[in-house]
Design brief:
The protein folds into 2 domains: 90 residues, Immunoglobulin-like (Sandwich); 209 residues, no CATH class. The chain contains 2 helices and 25 strands. The radius of gyration is 25 Å and the shape is elongated. It starts with a helix and ends in a 17-residue tail after the last strand.
Length: 326
C-alpha cells in the first residue's frame, strides 16, 4: 500500500522548484529502496546520497548539477541528464532472463523444459485431494519424452512438510472466441510417493522420478503440488497460518501455461473451472485498454521438467506376423 500511495502522489503532483522521484523496479513496479544516487556537474561529483524509503526523494534546488547516476549492487547502473529526470525512475534488475527451453551443457541428451525467470510471489500448496492451480507442459516435438526429474522453487520452509506432485492428463477447452481458456482434468492421474521438505530448505528443490511418466506429443500434462501435512518438531501434524505454510514460488512468465481457479470478489468462493490466467489477462487488456499488459502482470509457478527421449522397446514378433510366410 505504501508504494501505491507514493506512486499516486507522484503521478498526481507537479514538479515545483525541487526535483523529486522514486526508484521503481522496471519488471514488477515495486519500490526499490536504498538506491545510491550521485549528482555531477561537468563530470565532477557534487553530491551523493541514498534514496528515501518512506517518501519521494527530493533534490535540493540549491545544488547545481547537470546529470545523475543511480546505482545498487543488484540493479543495472543508470545515468541520466538533469532534463530527463522523471517522477518515476525505472531500474532494471541484473541477471533477469527469459529462458523458455534450455539444453543442458552437462548432459547432452537431456532437455530442461520450462522458464527460468525472476521470482515475484509465492502460493501455498493445494490441499491433498484438491486442484486449484498448476502449470501445463506441452511436448511440441514428434518424440516421446520421459520425465526424469521435476525441479521447483520454494520459500524458506518453516515446518516439515509432507506433499505429493501430481501429473494429470488434461484437455484445453477453447471459449467462444477461440482462446484456450479452460482446463479439463482427465481421469488419469499419476502422483509421486509422499515427499518431504524439511525446515530451512529453500529455493531449488530437485525430485528425481523413479516412475515412468511420459510427456507425449500433442498430449499436454498438468503438474500440481498437493499438501499432505505440516509437522512440528515432534512430528505431530499441525495447521499453521498461511504465513507459516510451505509455499511454491512464482516467476514472471512470457508463456500461457499457468491455470488456476479464480476467487469471486463478492462471495470469495472459488470458480469451478481452471482458467488460463495469463491468456485471460492479455485478452482483457487488449479488449479494455487496447494494449498489452506489463510483464509484471504475467506470472506462473516456477517449475522445470528434466526430459530425456523415451526408449521405445522393439516389438516382439507374434504368430500372425508369420502367417503369410508359411
Amino acid at each position: 500500500m505504501r508504494i501505491k500511495l507514493i506512486l499516486l502522489f507522484l503521478l498526481s503532483s507537479t514538479i515545483g522548484l525541487c526535483q523529486e522521484f522514486v526508484t521503481v523496479d522496471n519488471d514488477i513496479y515495486e519500490l526499490v529502496e536504498n538506491v545510491n544516487y550521485s549528482l555531477y556537474k561537468r563530470d565532477s561529483l557534487v553530491y551523493s546520497h541514498v534514496t528515501l524509503s518512506d517518501k519521494p526523494t527530493e533534490i535540493n534546488k540549491e545544488i547545481d548539477y547537470d546529470s545523475i547516476v543511480f546505482s545498487r549492487v543488484d540493479y543495472e547502473t543508470l545515468g541520466l541528464p538533469k532534463r530527463k529526470i522523471e517522477k518515476i525512475i525505472l531500474l532494471t534488475k541484473k541477471t533477469f532472463t527469459l529462458d523458455e527451453i534450455v539444453i543442458s551443457s552437462e548432459k547432452k541428451d537431456e532437455i530442461i523444459l520450462g522458464e527460468k525467470n525472476r521470482f515475484v510471489r509465492s502460493r501455498p500448496f493445494d490441499q491433498e485431494d484438491e486442484i486449484t492451480y498448476g502449470i501445463i507442459f506441452r511436448n511440441e516435438s514428434k518424440k516421446e519424452m520421459r520425465i526424469d526429474e521435476v525441479a521447483f522453487y520454494v520459500d524458506k520452509v518453516k515446518h516439515k512438510t509432507a506433499y505429493k506432485i501430481v501429473f494429470s492428463e488434461v484437455q484445453e477447452t477453447p471459449d467462444m472466441k477461440g482462446f484456450h481458456q479452460h482446463l479439463d482434468i482427465g481421469a488419469k492421474k499419476i502422483s509421486t510417493d509422499t515427499l518431504y521438505l524439511n525446515p530451512k530448505q529453500k529455493n531449488r528443490i530437485e525430485i528425481p522420478l523413479d516412475t515412468d511418466i511420459f510427456l507425449l506429443p500433442d498430449k499436454p500434462i498438468f503438474i500440481s503440488f498437493h499438501l499432505i501435512n505440516h509437522y512440528d518438531k515432534n512430528n505431530n501434524p499441525i495447521y499453521p497460518e498461511i504465513s507459516e505454510q510451505t509455499k511454491l514460488k512464482f516467476q514472471l512468465s512470457n508463456k500461457l501455461d499457468y491455470y488456476s481457479k479464480l476467487v469471486d470478489y463478492y462471495t470469495e468462493e472459488l470458480s469451478v473451472d481452471l482458467v488460463n490466467c495469463n491468456r485471460m489477462i492479455i485478452t482483457d487488456f487488449e479488449n479494455l485498454f487496447f494494449k498489452k499488459p506489463h510483464k509484471s502482470n504475467l506470472d506462473a509457478p516456477a517449475v522445470l521438467l528434466h526430459l530425456k527421449e523415451a526408449e521405445i522397446p522393439q516389438k516382439l514378433p507374434v504368430k500372425k506376423d508369420f502367417k503369410n510366410k508359411l
